[in-house]
Structure formats: C-alpha cells, structure tokens
Amino acid sequence: MKINKGYIIVGLIVAFGLIFELAAHADAADLATTLTFNQPIQIPGQVLPAGTYFLQLADHGSAQHIVQIFSSDRTVLYGTFLTIATERQEPTGDTEVTLAEPEAGGPDVLVKWFYPGRETGNEFVYSRQTEKEISQDRQQTISANQPSTFNSAAAAGN
After folding, report:
1. Residue whose C-alpha is closest to residue 95's, from 51, 140, 34, 42
2. Does 49 sit behind a cis peptide bond, omega within 30 degrees of 0 on the bond before it?
3. Is position 2 within any domain?
C-alpha cells in the first residue's frame, strides 16, 4: 500500500489548524481580561492597590457567574467571587467596568465588568451595607480597549 505524501501534509495542516483554532478561543471561553487601575480599587472583601489584574470566569461551562481576580502574572489569586448576571443596552468592542465613587471617600468600588462584545456582564456582590452605600454613590461606566487602564479620578471628572 502506497501512501501519498500530499495526503500526509494535508492531514498535518488540518490537524494543526484545529489545534490552533481551539487555542485561539481559549481567552474568549473564560472571558480573560487584563485591567490596570491607576488607583486602589475595592473588590468584595478587600482593597487592591493600584496595579494590573487579570480577571476571568472560573467555570465558563456553568450557568453561574463566578469571577476570579489574579495578579497580572496569575501567580496570586485575590479572590473567587459569585457575581450576578447584569445586562447592558448594547455590546461594545471594548472592556467596560462600572465603578462607584464613595461619597465618604476611599477607593472606588468595582461594581460591574463586561467582556468585549457581550451584552451580559458580571455584577459583584457586596455586603448589604456596602450595597446600600454603592446605590447612593456616583457610578461611572468606563469603556477602554484591552489591555485596559482605568484612572478612576480622571473618570469621575468626565
């Protein structure tokens, strides 16, 4: 039985294409996003210093919205958070976050995170007291290209 080298080459190209295609969708599946904040930012249970962070869905196969926040190099997990699905009017091609600027001062609060091209995002869950304060605070939705840098003081002035 004689095997044509052309068939082998075509088979390898198809196999490589399939592997490449799976890898190309890896970030979209877990909605991986890198965000840079120029000032400290409050997340549920803690305040993160100014810096770059990596957000992703923890279980993209689940109906629940579980978000993990890591250091930029993904070596430190700052938290795993159950979030509430939230909708926006129209998806954009950019990452969007909603920040609340506390009236009493202190760091801005990360309220929502939307992945580019998605109508459904993730609203972080806070204690009842913090939720009450957030509802009274000025909220600003910021849209930026990835990697995203958010300067909450500049955003508040817009």
Report:
1. 34
2. no
3. no
The b/e string for 3-30 (b: 16+ C-beta within 10 A; e otherwise) is: eeeeeeeeeeeeeeeeeeeeeeeeeeeb
Say how far apart CA 46 and CA 100 lie, in whole Å: 15
Is residue 109, in this structure, part of any structural domain at all? Answer: yes
> Which domain does 58 fall in, by range?
30-152
Please give the structure tokens belonging to residue 108. 């801005």
Q: Is residue 20 a contact partner of residue 12, using CB atoms and an 8 Å limit?
A: no
Cβ pair 113, 120 in contact under 8 A: no
Instruction: For residues 4-24, give the mean pLDDT.
Output: 39
Sequence length of the chain is 158
Number of domains in the chain: 1
Strand locations in the chain, DSSP E?
33-37, 41-43, 46-48, 51-57, 65-71, 77-87, 95-101, 108-114, 120-124, 138-144, 148-150
Taking CA atoms, 69 is separated from 113, 122, 137, in Å, by 12, 13, 24
Residue 22 lies in a domain: no
pTM, 2 dp: 0.72
- Does 18 reside within a domain? no
- Tens-digit pLDDT profile for residues 25-76: 235 556 788 888 899 999 999 999 999 999 998 875 666 689 999 999 999 9
